[in-house]
């Protein structure tokens, strides 16, 4: 069993193979030099703390004890599907019986920023270290992109007393994945914390200066900054799959068992697009930590012949300042929204399809105030439940009681 | 030296639910199971030190509100990724309608 990509997904898959009782050789190949580590803290508390600590998924001893051969700092340059071998950057080959591609995604590049020394992207631990080093008190930080990476970094930078502005091309923040009411709460939190937010603006030029960077806006304004951080989305690492003739469609195309267009090859995590049974097989690609974990574990089972379906509810979270946002399901599947207000300004939005089925729930509030309800909502969504809108709106009615109904 | 500390009234926690209890600079989670027994564990998840009392109790499992790490709150056993370190548990007794936990 060979796994390409040693992030959350690949590492979980490797351990899952052992948990399933597989006793043959397992090789986990990663491009980075670090042991597999958790990425979420890179833009959140890890960045706020600015420490060089790395939260590994498991230490070297655990990989060794599990008999997982780790090949770090190693590029996979080819896949020979006929003879079932992957070719590595050093010229050696590793044979496989089943192959899992968990190659992840990489930041989308802003062509205007090409060659700039003062424009950085965030994906890896080393990227985070380079950014953290430059978030000094008083530093002027321009963030291009009002998505999760940009906003979490904005919050972290404010926590380190930087001057921060965020520039988003779309008319509002988090337009892709987050309902407007929640995006408004997040925007207000950033403004209250001194972040200068501009939506509906585009970048026309980026020029390095002696000590920083000059970001020219389409309306003619120019902003001088010490550092520009670009967070305009991610693209799946699907080139290798494409080169060897696997179907690629917004990432490596897999079926509901995470199998690519070659039955010996699976793909999981950020790099793949897959059909969601919950939404009539709608094909999606998710860049989310829990999805990476779940798909890694499921792919491992299916590499061993389990033929299990990937039928879960998408879920993710974001931390910014004291607020945590959680979303279960895909809110854009909803035709109407029911709001439930909780204590301390926290609230939930239930997204109902035209036929009344609960298809998503989103919530925001201080700390973990919405976590339990979003989890319960997730269970309702998984059951394809159609709870009464009037009950969803009333905070006195426990969601757990709806689950029992 | 271990001593029994009053955490809450028995009726303060619903069945199949959990409550946070802070004492002497430490934080605990006190549970009432679906079959009306009481249990106590350390209050913070062993993965990222999140308060478990914000999580969801289902049967004998507490699920961390942050990353869905799961523990059996009766035994403290971690139930798989992302949690791999067990949770410390504490003896509990209910006396005169009060839930007491034994803290060393």
Proportion of beta-strand residues of chain B: over 45%
Instruction: Give the count of structural domains of chain A.
Output: 3
For the record, the CATH architecture of chain B stands as 3-layer Sandwich
Q: CATH H-level name of the largest domain in chain A... which superfamily?
A: FAD/NAD(P)-binding domain
Query: What's the count of strands of chain A?
Result: 26
Sheet of most strands of chain B: 4 strands, antiparallel
Supply the number of structural domains of chain B: 1
**Category by helix and strand content of chain B:** mainly beta
Fraction of helical residues of chain B: under 10%
Q: In percent, how helical is the residue content of chain A? A: 10-25%
End-to-end Cα distance of chain B:
5 Å
Q: Give the overall shape of chain A, derived from the CA principal axes.
A: globular
Oligomeric state of the chains present here: heterodimer
CATH topology of chain B: Rieske Iron-sulfur Protein
Describe the largest sheet of chain A.
Answer: 5 strands, parallel
Strand order of the largest sheet of chain A: 3-2-1-7-19
Name the overall outline of chain B.
Answer: globular
- Could you name the ranges of chain A where pLDDT drops below 50 across 5 or more consecutive residues? none
What's the CATH class of chain B, please? Mainly Beta
- Low-confidence region ranges of chain B: none
